[in-house]
Amino acid sequence: MTLEHYLILGAVLFCVGLLGALTRRNAVVVLFSIEIMLNAANLNFIAFWRFGENPEALQGPLFTLFTIAVAAAEVAVGLALVIAVYRHFKTVDLEQLDTLKEE
Amino acid sequence: MTPEITFWVLAFIAVCGALVAVVRRNLIHGVFALMIFFAALAGLFLLLLAEFIAAVQILVYIGAVGILLLFAIMLTERVTGDDGRSIAARGWFWGLAAAVAVFVFLLLPAIQEADLPESAQSIQPSVKELGLKLMAPYVVTLEVLALLLTAALIGAVAVAQGAEVNKKEDSDDA
After folding, report:
1. The pLDDT of residue B149
2. Domain encompassing residue A73
3. Does B92 contact A at CB distance below 8 Å?
4. Residue range B15-42, pLDDT digits in tens
5. Which positions in chain B touch A38 (Cβ < 8 Å)?
6. pTM, whole model, 2 decimals?
7. Cβ contact B37:A36 at 8 Å
8. Which residues of chain B lie closer than 8 angstroms to A15, CB-CB?
């Protein structure tokens, strides 16, 4: 397996996540589409570390660890926001959350 | 099983899991597909000899993020989604076009034109090294990350608790 295979897999997964984030109307689905995109980026970090120069510096795994921690924080805050929005508007449908648009 | 077959099987499972998670109407099914995607990615990390990252992936994503998403879905509406309303946003076609365009015109040319190294490096199992690195050159990052996680958890609790609780406390004080 060459690096190119992993990078193309990462690109496909990123685009699947992008597809979900752009086309779904449920806020929770948009949130987990963003998780898919972050995971695709992690796969790229690890693949570059495995195939790149100087793997004993461990930059790929360290970056991935930090991304995972930031992603976990993001999910916690994001879900809290979704629940707060649901309490207020009684919906998580992004099409109906258009208060700013109305005059 | 050779690494090639393992790679293709895991890649297939990951892409299918992600696709099902994104297009599925029933949100609970979506989250379980997402967990399968996370597990396949952990397998790919193992294949790339990042064994600690694979363990963290399973612990954090399948263990924590998956359960958190399940709870968020069950606390909000439309779990099964079978109420006949469309699951796609208005203008979903442009979203699909944008995703395909990003892949075809941005990511694929970038990968194909880059001068990529051909063969994998030989590496040793690295959990001890990872721990030493986190303690010596990256200790500030680690501390900032700990602060971020604490702030995020407190913020999440504060946001999810909502305005009503604050109002009640205010009236109790008065």
Report:
1. 93
2. 3-89
3. yes
4. 999 999 998 888 888 999 999 999 999 9
5. none
6. 0.88
7. yes
8. 99-100, 102-103, 107
Q: Is A103 a domain residue?
A: no
pLDDT in tens, B58-95: 999 998 888 888 888 888 766 555 566 677 777 788 88
Domain assignment present for A27? yes
Distance, CA of A40 to CA of B18 (rounded, Å): 10
Residues within 8 A of A (CB atoms), B 7-26 only: 7, 11, 14-15, 18-19, 21-23
What does the alpha-carbon distance between residue B21 and residue B33 come to, in Å, rounded to a whole number?
5
Q: Under an 8 A CB cutoff, do A36 and B130 touch?
A: no
For residue B108, list chain A residues with Cβ-Cβ distance below 8 A: 8, 11
Choose among B56, B89, B96: nearest Cβ to A25: B89
The label of the residue with tokens 């979704």 reads: A82
Q: How many domains does chain A have?
A: 1
CATH of the domain at A71: 1.10.287.3510
| The token pair that represents A17 in the structure block | 């996540």
Does residue A95 belong to any structural domain of this protein?
no
Say if CB A51 and CB B49 are below 8 A apart.
no
Domains of chain B: 1-82 (1.20.120.1200), 124-174 (no CATH)
Cα torsion B7, B10, B15, B17 to 10°: value is 180
| Interface check B1 vs A, CB under 8 A | no
Does residue A99 fall inside a structural domain?
no
Q: How far is B57 from A46, CA to CA, in rounded Å? A: 12
* Chain B 131-160, residues with CB within 8 Å of chain A CB atoms: 133-134, 138, 141, 145, 148-149, 152-153, 155-157, 159-160
ipTM of the prediction greater than 0.95, yes or no: no
